[in-house]
Amino acid sequence: MRISETTDKRQKKKRSLEAAGGLSSVICRLSSRKGFTMIEMLISLSIFAVVTAFVTANFRAGRQSDELRQSTQLLATAIRRAQTMALTGQTVPYCQGGTNDMKVCPNGTNPECGGGTCVRDLPKGYGIHLTTVAATAAKAVLFADIDGDKAYDAGEEIRTDTVSPGVFVSVTNLDPVAANVLDVVFVPPQPKIWFNGSTASAVARVTLMHKTTGLTKTVSINQITGQINAD
User: Fold this and answer.
1) What is the four-CA torsion angle of 102, 108, 109, 114, rounded to 10 degrees?
2) What is the pLDDT of residues 131-147, one digit of tens each?
């Protein structure tokens, strides 16, 4: 009986030593690996580069698309401002007589009129002046049509807004157009809408383009309904 117990103890001890030896061998093999192989590192770097390029490209495209969308909204807002001023009958200070006759006197003072008088009255209309000329293709000029010619004249401007939050979006096409210009004029009290001094066109369209992507969006003005839409 004692001999059997002693034998069993020896066998258990032997198995324990063998197990410990196997574990030590595994640990030694694992510890012998000092890092990634060159191939593993190249694969990892390649995957990282592809993912980074994909994310960057999508971010850039999204930003450019958003710039174009914001530009159409800014332009539509500028046009609606002129429409609202005509609808509400807002007055504007302008000169009667003097060297600046029929021009806006922004500060409302007589000296601005060069011998004339600065008066505040309802102009014949309010409008937006747009052009495809590169130097000013990103501008929308809000003006008071003081002389009633349904067109923008120097000295009638009230404010100038940019049609883009950045420098990459500008007006590239106008319909109708005359000498690279589209003047949209709202004549109170309705207000009636004129495009370049005419009512022949039912709809006017302003096309904006992103210089980097070539993508375009359009703002339209419906002469009959007065609706201003940005696609």
Assistant:
1) -20
2) 999 999 999 999 999 99
